[in-house]
Amino acid sequence: MIHMTNGYDPMLAAADRADEMKANGEEVGLLHSVAYVTFQELATRVSHRNTGKACNDPIADKMLQRIAADENLHMIFYRNICGAGMDIAPDQTLRAVTDIVTNFQMPGAGMPNFRRHGVLMAKHGIYDLRQHLDEVIAPVLRKWNIFDRTDFTPDGEKTRDDLAAFLEQLEKDATRFEEMRDRALAREAAKREKKAS
């Protein structure tokens, strides 16, 4: 109810970028919205699918498979629209995609206890940085051929360089998170084993 009452702005997390856009007379519009839902629908598909697997309940798993399949259809629709934007206005679309990727939050980010629940989901393999990078961002960018396109202006090339630098850092962050999670899970397993003996 809180989330539905507050609504969601895909650029809310990017306060600095949103201020810069206002100063330049730009608006968050269709390109930002379509870029956001492309990644958000795919992220939701991944997390629903992984939740189904983690349930250990065949009925819940089957239901969540169905929901995940619907999320995938939504993602394909938005990805195709955004891909058309990339063909029509490559620089502007890449700018919107980069704004969204570098400031991405799930729509529930403003909900009470969202951060705590997000940590639990990441800890238990429902949705984490590695999945976000490898199963959400990378496939979409590959589909749009972002790093092999030749139709960007120098401004677009700079935006692509910014995106590449962000993805490089995200790769490092994902690896660091996985190492920390593995150590924490090993400690918890050792504690359980010690208690059992």
TrEMBL record:
Subunit field text? Homodimer.
Question: What cofactor does its activity depend on?
Answer: Fe(2+)
Supply the source organism's classification: Bacteria, Bacillati, Actinomycetota, Actinomycetes, Mycobacteriales
Which PANTHER family does the UniProt record give?
Answer: ACYL- ACYL-CARRIER-PROTEIN DESATURASE-RELATED (PTHR31155), STEAROYL-[ACYL-CARRIER-PROTEIN] 9-DESATURASE 7, CHLOROPLASTIC (PTHR31155:SF9)
Looking up InterPro entries in the UniProt record yields: Fatty_acid_desaturase-2, Ferritin-like_SF, RNR-like
Descriptive protein name? Acyl-ACP desaturase
Keywords (alphabetical) are: Fatty acid biosynthesis, Fatty acid metabolism, Iron, Lipid biosynthesis, Lipid metabolism, Metal-binding, Oxidoreductase
Q: Does the keyword Oxidoreductase apply?
A: yes
